[in-house]
């Protein structure tokens, strides 16, 4: 069976080069491996702006760009930037209406991002459906990847609009969830309170032959004080009453699944990653036979970070906000850890910096440059993120490259 690490092929050739890149005169390259600045710049745009800023000071500087993601929204875009083919398919959105979602494919390996089909980005502004939003479209997206020949699936989860424990995803792949009258339960996490029986025997047989890696930056369990409804429900519009209802419904869901899948269904409810993306992590562990790995770790493998790092003199990583969450599995922390292990110095860029130098140092980041260092108005930082980031990159070139 294909392994995720084997997805790193010669097509990377040490990572995609920004513009012409390449080492001139024996000088080591600068590797830009940053995540998006959410709400301002995609990871690809961050790499472009940093490259422009660096080369504005050192015109012949060899630069390689490897946009990264940690499994959440932007994961497919990062894979496409690394050489995967973008595939689009019409699927069911979180509210039941049709949306066009994308996955990435290369040589039998698919990168599937649940936010493409079932994410908050698929909801109209100001509209939430905490009890009824469904992951059915994510299951359709997985099926499309299998139809295209994928036998290794990197399943990135995050940014979900849903809290249905992955029941919708599994239903799209052939599972049956019935109420006491023998009728399919309604979509969403709330209706799982009415679940009387679950049948996983109809799941797509190709799932058993595929390697499926659950890539997430969170390790929450399914339910309880640190579970999916309590921790992430409110950001999806869930009231305190909704959170309680969803927590009870998901606990009941796990109990019913235990009658079908055995005690492991209850064990998986407590496993790291089960609570990811409204509990879709749980559905992937129980129904898809997925294995859990930190999202940035698996994405660095798939994107070819190791080959891109070879020969680098400096790594520039970053994301919109460098804060406590960054230290717990977010992309910059993963990039810094991998670069530090290889003995390469790491600098970070961000919109907002909320970490002291000591925390940055512990994470392997020598220094962080924030947009707010040169523009104190947060609104202007967001509106003018691109030009400001170029200015920061110029400062980095003066401080660390020239």
What's the helix and strand layout?
Elements: E1 29-32, H1 43-57, E2 63-65, H2 75-81, E3 85-92, E4 98-106, E5 109-113, H3 114-118, H4 136-147, E6 152-156, H5 167-172, E7 176-178, E8 197-199, H6 206-209, E9 211-216, H7 228-232, H8 240-261, H9 264-269, H10 276-287, E10 291-294, H11 295-303, H12 305-309, E11 312-322, H13 331-341, E12 346-353, H14 357-363, E13 367-370, H15 371-374, H16 378-383, H17 385-401
Parallel strand pairs: 1-2, 1-11, 5-6, 6-9, 9-10, 11-12, 12-13
Antiparallel strand pairs: 3-4, 4-5, 7-8
Helix pairs in contact: 1-17
Can you characterise this structure?
- Helices cover 38% and strands 18% of the residues.
- The protein is of the alpha/beta class and 402 residues long.
- The N and C termini lie far apart (47 Å).
- The chain contains 17 helices and 13 strands.
- It has a six-stranded mixed sheet with strand order 3-4-5-6-9-10, sandwiched between helices. The chain has a five-stranded parallel sheet with strand order 2-1-11-12-13, sandwiched between helices.
- Helix 14 (357-363) links the parallel strand 12 (346-353) and strand 13 (367-370).
- Residues 7-26 have low confidence and may be disordered.
- It has two domains: 4-66 and 309-401, Rossmann fold, CATH 3.40.50; 75-296, Glycerate kinase, domain 2 (Alpha-Beta Complex), CATH 3.90.1510.10.
- One of its GO terms (biological process) is organic acid phosphorylation.
- It holds the Pfam family Gly_kinase.
């Amino acid at each position: 069976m294909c392994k995720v690490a084997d997805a790193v092929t010669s097509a990377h050739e040490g990572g995609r080069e920004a513009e012409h890149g390449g080492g001139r005169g024996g000088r080591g390259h600068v590797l830009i491996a940053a995540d998006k600045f959410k709400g301002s710049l995609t990871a690809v745009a961050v790499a472009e702006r940093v490259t422009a800023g660096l080369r504005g000071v050192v015109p012949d500087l060899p630069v390689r760009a490897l946009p990264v993601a940690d499994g959440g929204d932007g994961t497919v875009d990062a894979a496409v930037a690394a050489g995967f083919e973008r595939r689009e398919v019409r699927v069911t959105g979180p509210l039941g209406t049709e949306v066009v979602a994308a996955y990435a494919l290369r040589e039998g390996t698919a990168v599937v991002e649940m936010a493409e089909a079932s994410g908050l980005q698929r909801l109209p502004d100001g509209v939430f459906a905490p009890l009824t939003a469904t992951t059915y479209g994510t299951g359709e997206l997985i099926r499309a990847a299998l139809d295209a020949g994928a036998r290794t699936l990197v399943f990135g989860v995050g940014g979900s609009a849903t809290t249905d424990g992955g029941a919708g995803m599994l239903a799209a792949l052939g599972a049956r969830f019935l109420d006491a009258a023998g009728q399919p339960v309604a979509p969403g996490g709330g209706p799982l309170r009415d679940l009387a029986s679950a049948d996983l025997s109809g799941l797509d047989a190709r799932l058993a032959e595929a390697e499926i890696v659950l890539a997430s930056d969170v390790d929450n369990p399914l339910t309880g004080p640190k579970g999916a409804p309590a921790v992430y429900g409110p950001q999806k519009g869930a009231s305190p009453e909704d959170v309680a209802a969803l927590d009870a419904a998901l606990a009941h869901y796990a109990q019913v699944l235990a009658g079908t899948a055995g005690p492991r269904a209850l064990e998986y409810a407590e496993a790291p990653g089960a609570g990811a993306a409204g509990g879709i992590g749980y559905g992937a562990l129980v129904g898809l036979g997925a294995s859990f790995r930190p999202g940035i770790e698996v994405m660095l493998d798939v994107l070819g970070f190791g080959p891109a790092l070879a020969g680098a003199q400096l790594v520039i990583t970053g994301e919109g906000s460098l804060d406590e969450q960054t230290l717990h599995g977010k992309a910059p922390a993963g990039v810094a850890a991998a670069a530090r292990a290889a003995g390469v110095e790491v600098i970070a860029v961000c919109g907002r910096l909320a970490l002291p130098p000591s925390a940055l140092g512990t994470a392997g980041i020598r220094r962080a440059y924030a947009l707010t260092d040169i523009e104190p108005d947060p609104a202007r930082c967001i509106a003018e993120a691109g030009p400001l980031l170029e200015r920061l990159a110029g400062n980095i070139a003066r401080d660390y490259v020239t």
